[in-house]
Amino acid sequence: QTIFVPKEVDATEARVAASPDTVKRLSGLGFSVVVEKDAGAGSRIPDADFVAAGGSIGKSSDAGKADVVLKVRRPTEAELKSYKSGAVVLASMDPYGNDAAVAAMAKAGISAFAMEFMPRITRAQSMDVLSSQANLAGYQAVIDAAAEYDRALPMMMTAAGTVPAAKIFVMGVGVAGLQAIATARRLGGVVTATDVRPAAKEQVASLGAKFLAVEDDEFKAAETAGGYAKEMSKEYQAKQAALTADHIAKQDIVITTALIPGRPAPKLISAAMVASMKPGSVIVDLAVERGGNVEGSVPGKVVTTANGVKIIGHLNVPGRVAASSSLLYAKNLFAFLETMIDKEKKAVVVNPDDELVKATLLTHGGKVVHSNFAKAEA
Ligand code: NAD
């Protein structure tokens, strides 16, 4: 069978869904791997490295020969037209609110897998694109903040005097937040963090940061069985805002990462809180693509407020460290694809009864098959 790895159509997407390592592994399993010319350019992977790994270099129309397509983003209408019916396509499909796109994939007859729906169970940890990409986003958020912050982060005691350490507050400590804490600590910041899930408290402490939260009865019950946060009540939100307002006013850098599955991002920082911060302070809103945690953050922009606070709203933050994020993303896709490979037939076989397939398969055999999207039927 043939596996095709396109150059992403979206010009702002620097990542690629294969690495020399995964191409080598797939070739070793008996697949012919075709990588589109310059697909790895944004991730600093030259075509020659894919060739050395056993792949060959092709053009976008080679998608038509592929039994499997490995992608970062959901295929566009034009891409769908070039795929053969029955092709297996793995990507971050971003299906919520995009029923028409899901229906189009069903109509194209592809087996479309939404990698972001991979269950967060031990067996699937190596396939978890949300974690691998959020981890790098958390890291990059601190790097982006440091670049906009016009002072040093660590305390420096020198013969010429002392530079104080930056105070850094991380709001939301899932995968991205934990990495943001670790990175901020490595750069010498004095780090505090908050979350609504009690489990986060110990994790924050283990990274050497201080935990700050309203720890009432609602907090004790805020974690769902899946490990995610619930949407908090208005009362809780008011208590949380009261607790964090004074703290935020004293911070040099605030990084927000708070998300609630299937809901808009919770608003954690009001315009008044932003206005209370010192000029030159920096806020990074990692939730900006999901509505934002910060009042005044703008998707894709660095905004400077009237009082001189910079609010960073970069899109696709993992894509800002594409050379690193592509390696992990490629490995996630390989790990999942490998579970579907029949090693004797040297072919990918979709078993709709498999637990991981059930969780991720959006469309199959011309139909929308995922329970969350039954309505998206063409
Ligand atoms: P996420 O991206 O959904 O949310 C980021 C963080 O925001 C979460 O910690 C959440 O509790 C927090 N948050 C939500 N509302 C908030 C509010 N109002 N105020 C402050 N914080 C708020 O989270 P994630 O990174 O996907 O992680 C979710 C969970 O999954 C965590 O418990 C994590 O440890 C777990 N996880 C498990 C595995 C695994 O077992 N394989 C892998 C990755 C993550």
UniProtKB/TrEMBL annotation:
Q: Which residues form the Alanine dehydrogenase/pyridine nucleotide transhydrogenase NAD(H)-binding domain?
A: 146-313
Q: What class of enzyme is it?
A: translocase
Q: Where is the Alanine dehydrogenase/pyridine nucleotide transhydrogenase N-terminal domain?
A: 4-137
So which domain of life are we looking at? Bacteria
Alphabetically sorted, this entry's keywords are: NAD, NADP, Nucleotide-binding, Translocase
* Entry EC number(s): 7.1.1.1
Provide the coiled-coil residue spans.
none
Q: Mind telling me which Pfam families this protein's record contains?
A: AlaDh_PNT_C (PF01262), AlaDh_PNT_N (PF05222)
What reactions does this protein catalyze?
A: NAD(+) + NADPH + H(+)(in) = NADH + NADP(+) + H(+)(out)
Describe the task this protein carries out.
Answer: The transhydrogenation between NADH and NADP is coupled to respiration and ATP hydrolysis and functions as a proton pump across the membrane.
NCBIfam families this protein is in? PRK09424.1
Protein name, per record? proton-translocating NAD(P)(+) transhydrogenase
Origin organism of this chain?
A: Neoaquamicrobium sediminum
Organism phylogeny: Bacteria, Pseudomonadati, Pseudomonadota, Alphaproteobacteria, Hyphomicrobiales
